[in-house]
Description:
Keywords: Coiled coil. The protein contains nine helices and two strands. The chain is mainly alpha-helical.
Amino acid sequence: xxxxxxxxxxxxxxxxxxxxxxxxxxxxxxxxxxxxxxxxxxxxxxxxxxxxxxxxxxxxxxxxxxxxxxxxxxxxxxxxxxxxxxxxxxxxxxxxxxxxxxxxxxxxxxxxxxxxxxxxxxxxxxxxxxxxxxxxxxxxxxxxxxxxxxxxxxxxxxxxxxxxxxxxxxxxxxxxxxxxxxxxxxxxxxxxxxxxxxxxxxxxxxxxxxxxxxxxxxxxxxxxxxxxxxxxxxxxxxxxxxxxxxxxxxxxxxxxxxxxxxxxxxxxxxxxxxxxxxxxxxxx
Length: 284
């Protein structure tokens, strides 16, 4: 129980420290206007607001008529500029998509296509039970997914397991915790632009300063080695369902991916780095 409390505190403290620093330094991405809206258009829009205000503050009919004419002209310029810039924006995206296709950059192609399509999301497809009966209640839908993935992931043991013979000699495997150098290499090999796990720490947060991150994780990994206990978040994962082809009301037409803690992955990679030299050593 004391170990569990220790690792809850350690895991939460490390997570809070990482996420708070990440938000403090980078802040959240803010969208004030469409991507194709340029600075020139924003200036014209502000000018249009000023012309609109001039109409409301006109004292005579002549001043009001003049202000209305000026507003109408600026309004035409704003709409014309928006159409022109949006057309150029779409053409540039199409060029980027063609280049990504030629180079085989599927991620850039997906992101560009998503922008071109307007990021429209379809409502989630209700899934049917095993008997083929539909059910639209949210809680029961969740229960159907729980039942599906429990059956999919919790397979029974094979009736005839393979007979693996024991090695004739014990191999000199390093059973110590990963070194700072091994942790640094593991952090650098983590792919960017990946979703965070339950601890909400993305890869970019760890890779922002590899040396500092490696020192922090080295202390944590040594605690894990001594206490033989890992943070609770590292034992959990976020299960995401990805639709495949076919009837999307059938759970079998989805595949699941699990988002794990990036820090936990770095520990796994550090252990792998320890054994790489042993695996590459020629056998007699």
